[in-house]
Amino acid sequence: MSRWVAWTMAGLLLSGCHRHAKPEPSPPPSAAQTEPTSTAAAPSPAGQIGMARPATAQERAVVDELVRAAEAVRQLKLRRPVMIEIEDGEAIAESLRSQIEEADIERARSIYGTLGLLDAEDDLHAMFAGVLGEQVIGYYDPETGRLVIREDVMNGLTGALGSEQTQEARLVLVHEIVHALQDQRLSLGESYQKERTSDADNAFRAVVEGDATLAMLAHALRQQGIPLSAATEGIQQLGNHLDLNGLVQGEKLDDAPTIVRVTLIAPYLRGLQFIAAVQGRGGWPAVNNAHRRPPLSSEQVLHPDKYFAREPSEAIVVQDSPQVLAAGFKRVAEDTLGELELGVYLGQLTLSGAADQAASGWAGDQLVIYARKKETAAVWWTSWDTDRDAEEAFDAARSVSPNAPTAMVQRKGRSVLIVRGLPAKLHRPVRNEFSKFARAIEGQPAPPEIPPSPVY
User: Fold this and answer.
1) Is 165 helix (H, G, I), strand (E, B) or coil?
2) Could you say which DSSP state residue 133 is in?
3) 89, 247, 262, 416: least surrounded by Cβ within 10 Å?
């Protein structure tokens, strides 16, 4: 999914934290303050609807305790305190919904609507707003340096809620404080500003959210006297056994299309598994290094051995067909979706399992969206590690391709072409451009096979 919605929505709360969804509007820069701080919003009495207020001394003390816990488990120290604000749930939800930009909505409609992963006629703004507004605990705002906590949740932390709910909220806040540590110590804010494809952004977010989620779990384990080292191997195997529908609850999220749900949740579960592999191999210093040198693709996240081996993907640039342009189609968007999102398209990725065989041989891709008046069309070039991988992807792509004259799937060697929405008379020139690419790919060595290694 597009970067804005993926950063804004946090979809996974583990270790019993499955009642809430917590938004995070971007990457973090700080976490819990010990001194009162001025805010953009005027201070207001506790509980006043729609207004933010500074934390009281008692509330700051509670968060300070969580800061110390996050610093201890993550083995990093904050360089400066963070502003804490308390706000009612309606105001938090409205603040998050206000970040939805029409340009991002239209890009999602263009790319995922053309691929059939979203219904382009749906009210996407309402759908995303509904997902973002569900059961929000709080969020960290990197632009203002605020940790915003929902009023009733803060009341629970100071003694009003039951112990189970209080523990859930504490774990969520540890997760958010880790984002502040990442920003202050690992330059998260700067890293976030870099332009990336959807695939590279999915990989980057997996590091950020996987790190915070593993630290959150480490804190929970520490409270039970269990060292993290005793759990990292098991964490790496979670994805094959967890039902995310049971862990992540929300009526709006449940109703969202698979592409939305997978790309929101994957950074937490798949990122958790990836970071567990990294941390198990080299401790928290290795996780720090993963921030400085993040995985380049979702493939490297889904298969950590490929990250450790730094297996590259193949750079692909779709060439425009002159006939397509002459017919009035204009290139309006381009992206690399990678193994994670290709798995969704091929119908081989579910919320409770890893990328299936059809997507696991991914070597590279580029998707181009063309538009002509109200028509949109997709031309998608993909490459695969082996001919057999390409054949499996080809079969899967044909099975999900619409039965329409505007659709086409073709394979040449270890390359696969997917076309949707393009008039049949333009298929031949598109095939010709693709054939040139496929012949060039055949003349290049495929990415090396990475042999399985022990789980670290």
Assistant:
1) helix
2) T
3) 89
pLDDT one-digit tens code per residue, 364-379: 999 999 999 999 999 9
* Contacts with 300 (C-beta within 8 Å, 6 or more apart), sequence order: 203, 306, 307, 311
CATH topology of domain 322-442: Phosphorylase Kinase; domain 1 (3.30.200)
d(CA 70, CA 91): 27
DSSP-assigned letter for residue 136:
B
**Residues 137-172 as b or e (16 or more Cβ within 10 Å = b):** bbbbbbeebbbbbbbbbbbbbeeebeeebbbbbbbb
- How far apart, in whole angstroms, are the C-alpha atoms of residue 337 and residue 197? 7
| Short-list 165, 149, 177, CA closest to 52 | 149
Closest to 25 in 3D by CA, of 9, 41, 3, 13: 9
* Cα separation, 85 vs 95, whole angstroms: 13
Residue spans of beta strands (DSSP E) within 165-288: none
Helix spans in 330-416 (H): 338-345, 357-360, 387-400
CA distance 117 to 7: 20
Q: Give the residue extent of every domain in the chain.
A: 3-295, 322-442
Say which DSSP state 151 is in: H
Tokens representing 59 are 């509330």
Taking phi first (over 0 means left), then psi (-120 to 50 degrees means alpha), and beta for anything else, what does residue 328 get? left
Residues forming a β-bridge with 381: 366, 417
Q: Taking 50 as the threshold, does the pLDDT of residue 320 lie above it?
A: yes
* Chain position carrying tokens 């949707």: 420
Task: Taking residues 60-89, report their average pLDDT.
Answer: 94
Residues 235, 241: contact at Cβ < 8 Å?
A: no
Most confident by average pLDDT, 33-37, 49-53, 90-94, 329-333 = 329-333
List, for residues 244-288, the tens digit of each pLDDT value: 444 555 677 778 888 988 888 889 989 999 999 999 999 999 999
